[in-house]
Write a structure and sequence with these properties.
Helix content is 5%, strand content 47%. With 210 residues, the chain is mainly beta. The chain folds into three domains: 2-60, SH3 type barrels (Roll); 65-147, Nucleic acid-binding proteins (OB fold (Dihydrolipoamide Acetyltransferase, E2P)); 151-207, OB fold (Dihydrolipoamide Acetyltransferase, E2P), CATH 2.40.50. Strands 9-8-7-10-11 form a five-stranded antiparallel beta sheet. Strands 14-13-12-15-16 form a five-stranded antiparallel beta sheet, with no helix packed on it. Strands 2-3-4-5 form a four-stranded antiparallel beta sheet, with no helix packed on it.
């Protein structure tokens, strides 16, 4: 169990019977009132983001999130296909709403960690596998997202040419990366260069030294 002030960024909790990722948290106290923790949470199944305030008396269960290595293969009509690292013959699709916004930085043949969740209800049912009425889906782990590196290297496929002299004044421009993602980068970035991108913030970090 986590106390109200232990519900912090990057923690996974059970809230309203679903697994949530804590996106932000801020413990505040106003005058004589007891402190509270104002949080922003993302539902790991639906992707819905909600805000909730936890009070001193509140406690939550930490979600049982597991990881396993998978490889991203390709995208077809909005379907993202992966395979198991240990058994490449096992291919499966993960929907875009489960993958989240970071998927725009995912290159083909990239290995990532799949985040899986099994509810306590599912675990309880799993212990009754001998029951003919039990559903196989009840005890199957559910993939609820992927864990990507915070920084990735990507090639710039499109970048407006810089006008002579304008790079000295700083400034930014929109560029397109090999995965199709569009980000803002400094004016001196050119097509064909490799750059480092922060997948958490979707921001340019630096050029890759040759």
């Amino acid at each position: 169990m986590l106390d109200y002030n232990e519900i912090k960024e990057r923690k996974y909790i059970i809230y309203e019977n679903d697994p949530y990722e804590v996106l932000s948290s801020q413990v505040t106290r106003k005058q004589a009132n007891k402190p509270v923790n104002r949080t922003k949470l993302r539902n790991l199944i639906t992707g819905r983001v909600v805000e909730n305030t936890f009070h001193v008396s509140d406690k939550v269960h930490e979600a049982d999130i597991s990881k396993r290595e998978i490889k991203y293969l390709y995208t077809n009509k909005g379907e993202y296909w992966f395979n198991e690292i240990k058994d490449p013959s096992k291919r499966f699709m993960i929907s875009e709403n489960v993958l989240g916004d970071k998927v725009k930085f995912l290159k083909e043949n990239t290995e990532v960690d799949a985040l899986t969740f099994t509810s306590k209800d599912g675990e309880a049912k799993a212990s009754k596998r001998s029951s003919p009425d039990a559903s196989e889906e009840a005890f199957r782990e559910k993939i609820i997202g992927i864990k990507m590196p915070i920084k990735v290297e990507l090639k710039v496929t499109e970048a407006p040419p810089s006008i002579k002299g304008n790079t000295a004044s700083g400034g930014n421009k929109q560029i397109i990366l090999e995965t199709g993602a569009v980000i803002t980068a400094p004016l001196f970035i050119e097509e064909g260069q490799m750059i480092i991108v922060n997948t958490d913030t979707s921001e340019y970090v630096s050029r890759v030294d040759k």
